[in-house]
Amino acid sequence: MNQLNEDIVDLREVFAILRRQLRLIVMTVVIVLALAFVFVIRTTPQYTAMALIRVNPQETNLLNPTVAAAANSNVETTQIETEVEILKSSRLALKTIETAKLHKSEEFGRSVGLFDKFRAVLGMELPPPPTGQALLNESLKKFDDALTVRRRGLTYLVGVQVTSTDPEQSANIANTHALTYIDAQVSSRIETSNNASKLLREERDKASQRLARSNESLRRYVADNIDRLSEEVGTEQLAALKGKLGNVTGRLGELRQSLDAANTAVAQQNWSMLADRISDQALVTLEQERQGLLQQLQGTGADSTTRVDLDRALADLDKRLQDRARTAVSDLKQDVQQVTTVEAGILDEIQEAMAGRDLSSRTVTEIYGLNRDAIAAQQLYDNVISRLRDLEAQAVVQIADSRMISEALVPSQPSYPNKTLVLAMALTLASVLGVGLALLKEFYYGGVTSANQLGNIVPVKVGAVVPKLSYQQGRDTLADKVSKEPMTQFAEAFRKLRASVDQALRDRTGGAVVLVTSAIPAEGKSTTALSLARTYALAGKRTLLIDADLRNPSIHQFIREEPGMGLLEYLQAGQPTAADPDAKGTDPAEEFYVLDPLSSLGIILGSRRANVPTDAPLQSDAFRDLVANARNAFDVVVIDSAPLIPVVDTQYIAPLVDAAVICVRFGEASQVELRTAYAQLRDTLPVEADVLSVLNCFEGGVQSYRYDGYYGG
What we know:
The protein is of the alpha/beta class. It folds into 3 domains: about 190 residues, 2-Layer Sandwich (Bacterial polysaccharide co-polymerase-like); about 190 residues; about 180 residues, Rossmann fold (3-Layer(aba) Sandwich), CATH 3.40.50. The strands form 2 sheets. An 8-stranded mixed β-sheet has the order 5-12-11-6-10-7-9-8, sandwiched between helices. A hairpin with a 5-residue loop joins strand 2 and strand 3. Helix 5 crosses helix 7, helix 8 runs antiparallel to helix 14 and helix 10 packs antiparallel against helix 11. The protein is rod-shaped. The N terminus is likely disordered.
């Protein structure tokens, strides 16, 4: 049941914590909002423009638009994602940078960084600015940072976003990049078509040559075997065709020999041989004129006017000879072609004449094989020609599979920073941070500001909360109010503390010893010890207050007494020394024992700050005997001890007491210090001894964490 109660969150306590830490929360919110406001004001606004591109994952065929590939969602998704990556590619980005000349702009070109500015301020030499490829690479990095390409959901739309400090530039770059992508897509398809066309043309030429070789092979077979074929067929038509073929073949051989000789004569410019070979009278006449001019030139001086005229006439005659030779060779080629055509026609007639005739199996097999080769070559040639025509037709009307359906508009509002969003997030973050800091301060690092908080930090009963009072030097001490103003809240707080101590000691018989300590100095420990002891004395209890804070005794100052010796001197007098190992304290107790002027309280005083370690006297038999005798002589013994964290003294007093009170000053000691002090106290107290805490809200004379008087001599 107790565990269940601990797990339940008390909302009132949560709101109480927030109320106590409201100042910290408000300060945190104000600081974070101020930083956010400065960030919004000082940050250069960024503008984002977006162009929309529709990607068609199926290839477009304008010649046959009804043909479409079967839709496949996985393939389409892969195709769209591929186009997105192409839009992000460095190659396309470089084209956009060059097109828009971004490498020359202030934003995407050469910029001076913060480090370079710092070096310039110091007068240091700056590195040379990047040029060429280095400048392009720097621009490319900035462009990649400014570019965002995303597919819009599950649609075919792709958004091209560009962020820039200039709204017009952001829109221009987004549109330029989208158009560059579309142009690159068209160029890629055209290049692919051209490469395919080139390949198909090469295949067409090869197919044409193969077809020509196949047809020529069949004709050559017929021509070479005309005698055997004529005997197998045995018809007058084939015999006549055989004779015609022989005449044409002989004529074709003569023409080819003449053509070869003519080409050789033209290459050597031997016009006489050419004229004799082709029997061209015009060429013979021109050659005779040329020979005559050459003879005239031999008898003419080098500088004479006649020689110049003869050279000009000779050059003109050479040109006429060349033109006539080319014409003659061309005519000869035409004759060869004509005779070749006649020969092919005769061979075709022979093949037709053989059709349906009874031929030997050997002949049939040979002709069948030649025919199959010719048919296969013809089919291959026709297929290549058909594919080439389709590809060339598509290349003329080539378009991109993607198109820009929405140009980027010049943005009117900056996309970054979003002032409303930044301030809203800052407010949210500040609130969360403020509450977090408040909880950290409440439960870990900050000082104690409420009884509930003190109870959460130190798991003991809060005996009392002493109200806030001011202390002024030269006037009555705060502890005097217990006697002089017994009806005040201050006096009532210590009566409540006394009641809590009595409840903790309810099972105790005989005199009780109560330890009053604190985590650090200036927590109101001595004021609490004196006030609690006076409360017991005013209630009729035989009470003794021992100022055991040997490092920094202060009770004598509160009651304005200046003893000749104090507790420390008494304990030191009872310590054995090298000169008198059996020495014991012999000074009378009246030297440091006094009565409280405002009550019946007996007080053992300290006189001065210790200039030596004081842990040894507190471990002595004299001190233990002192506490034991006080327990027997008084109803309540209150011991004012040193703080726990600065010195070790209290840990030697704690085993001798029945209860302990930890004093906590409002907002002073940190929670870590309180937990550490409580752990040390709990480890040294007797198991049956109870611990209480008291929250002091009054203002003392010392309000700091200084450990003066505990470490100094």
